[in-house]
Amino acid sequence: MKPSIPKGTRDFSPEEVNKRNYIFDTVREVFVRYGYQPIETPAMENLSTLTGKYGEEGDKLLFKVLNNGDFLAKADEKALDNRDSNQLIPSISKRGLRYDLTVPFARYVVMRQHEVTFPFKRYQIQPVWRADRPQRGRYQEFYQCDVDVVGSDALVYEAELAQIYDEVFARLGLEVAIKINNRKVLAGIAEAAGISDSFMDMTIAIDKLDKIGMEGVEKEMAGRGIPPAAIDTIKTILQAKSLEKLKPLLANSATGLKGVEELEVVFDYLGIGETANEITFDITLARGLSYYTGCIFEVQAKGVQMGSIGGGGRYDDLTGVFGMPGISGVGVSFGAERIFDVMEELKLFPEDSAIRLKAVFLAFDDASHRYAFRCLRKLRAAGINAEIYPEPTKMGKQFKYVDKRNAPYAIVIGSNEMATGELAFKNMKTGEQEGLKLEEIIERLKG
Prior knowledge:
Elements: H1 14-33, E1 37-38, E2 44-46, H2 47-50, H3 55-60, E3 64-65, H4 77-81, H5 85-92, E4 95-97, H6 102-111, E5 120-129, E6 141-150, H7 156-172, E7 176-182, H8 183-192, H9 199-206, H10 209-223, H11 228-238, H12 243-249, H13 254-270, E8 278-281, E9 295-301, E10 310-315, E11 329-335, H14 336-345, E12 359-363, H15 366-381, E13 386-388, H16 395-404, E14 409-413, H17 415-420, E15 422-427, E16 433-437, H18 438-446
Parallel strand pairs: 1-5, 7-8, 12-13, 12-14
Antiparallel strand pairs: 2-4, 3-4, 5-6, 6-11, 7-9, 9-10, 10-11, 14-15, 15-16
């Protein structure tokens, strides 16, 4: 049988892994600089932990894990006979692959509430899984780089997270637009339109605006039972491009005005013209996840067609569903896979000399091969990335290997080199070769 991998997943070559690590290392360095601490959580969570936290759309995308052993032994026979998968799942699957890192983080905080210091600032870089339809920039297995703080409702953290987005993308050389809105503003729109009971239906539709356009959003809202008059009101309010223009439109909604006030505080913290990237208010930003309650974020890359490459927001009571009410938190996530794809397309990855193989030792016979192996140890001890061809075979075959490994230098050793201590140091690009002592080669490669 021809080998394959599951749809929506990918293998990564050494070159690709090095590039991905460049992203992870950059993100991690900024997280640590801002005082965030690392944690890790299991790939699998109990389905009871995951279900109901992501809204109706998100629940459909959860990967379920079958119970161990004979998973049908305790299956709901009635559901099985009726081919009712929704009723069947609880009896055959107790676990699922994590959909994101935020809900597992909330579960972690509740379970370890007596161990952590609040406000608790954590970062997490791990894979997540979603049963989404694979397409460019959208995978079923992908890494998220999350940074959250729980235990404080201070809006300074919203401003800090916007700064983190700004600094990370500036370091990566990727120009982005960082968009901010507030779920209270969206609740105010629903209130102004007289459809507070259809708030989630409205936000799910608005969240698709960049994919299906305003006409598509109108059809989506109508299909969800939102009246035409309410849709017209929503369209009018969505045209407000500034907080000042929004205020009179939400004059009759205390919740909406509270959202505007929170956004004004965040932008006041950030100041004007003090960031490398554009940070703007965007009233059409909705973020479909149901647990957001305050400011919400989304990041889009400029100069390339791609969905959001980051997003997040404030959640006032995510820990409440796990028995610990009243713990407010806010966090954002970096979409590592999409960031990778965008940086590849825009050719933004540097040629990282720190991770490149610098030299390969080649030998003519067994004695010189052992001598070369001892020399290799000294190069590595000096912090130089180097290796040795595994056997003293034909020299042409050995040089061909150096070429394929893209190593800039070959160090050739035979009986003459062993006798004189001057090793043949060959520049693979120019073809120039000279005799150098091992210490001189080390200095040359370090320089």
